[in-house]
Amino acid sequence: KQEVTQIPAALSVPEGENLVLNCSFTDSAIYNLQWFRQDPGKGLTSLLLIQSSQREQTSGRLNASLDKSSGRSTLYIAASQPGDSATYLCAVKEGTSYGKLTFGQGTILTVHP
Amino acid sequence: DTEVTQTPKHLVMGMTNKKSLKCEQHMGHRAMYWYKQKAKKPPELMFVYSYEKLSINESVPSRFSPECPNSSLLNLHLHALQPEDSALYLCASSRPEAGGGELFFGEGSRLTVL
Fold first, then answer.
1. How confident is the model at residue A113 (pLDDT cuts 50, 70, 90)?
2. Nearest to A111 by CA among A76, A84, A79
């Protein structure tokens, strides 16, 4: 059974810091990995999708890497801002392009001015 | 347009009521999903439809009944729910073909069962 772990569970940083969120998964036979953010009481917003054949993806201040063989992904956020405060979830998709998405428990990020 | 629209945003129902949650997308996606999220927990998969056919049912109790009337719509019919079914219900969609698979979520329907 696939298990996804995110470290740290919570992170509080001052504005402007660069930070790294970690995600690990137990079964490397994944279809893709996706990073989301979730604001309190809201739905999930897709940040980055990395296909299993890719090593990294970038969008603005965000960069996500994937090392499938070691079962790890990192989300790098550059020059953090208070608006980045949210819960960040990583999720791995198994089997097929419409297969099951298994989520980590999330990292609660607080960026203070 | 990367929007998935869910209605209603909030729903309160008694244990004997019958209600439905609705989800709509116009991105041409042919895979649609229902997830359930309890407070401070990650979403858990309930159902997956691919090309309007149910492809995954994660052993969900029969009091939850999904329906996919066409490629743009997904419903979740609710009957005889329990208070522990209170949660945020999230709908998502994706392109099912190879190279696709990015999920787009709606804002959710917050359900309270009294």
1. very high
2. A84
DSSP string, chain A: ---EEEE-SEEEEETT--EEEEEEES---EEEEEEEEE-TTS-EEEEEEEETT-SEEEETTEEEEEETTTTEEEEEE-S--GGG-EEEEEEEEESSTTS-EEE---EEEEEE-
Residue A89 has pLDDT above 70, yes or no: yes
| Residue B43 to chain A, least CA–CA distance (Å) | 7
Which of B40, B102, B112 to mutate against chain A (most A CBs within 10 Å)? B102
Of A17, A1, A4, the residue nearest A109 (C-alpha): A17
Cβ atoms B7, B63 nearer than 8 A? no
Question: Which of A113, A36, A111 has the alpha carbon at shortest distance from A80?
Answer: A111
Residue B56: how many other CB atoms lie within 10 Å: 18
Confidence of residue B46 (pLDDT cuts 50, 70, 90): very high
Q: What is the 3-state secondary structure (H, E, C) of B33-77?
A: EEEEECCCCCCEEEEEEECCEEEEECCCCCCEEEEEEECCEEEEE
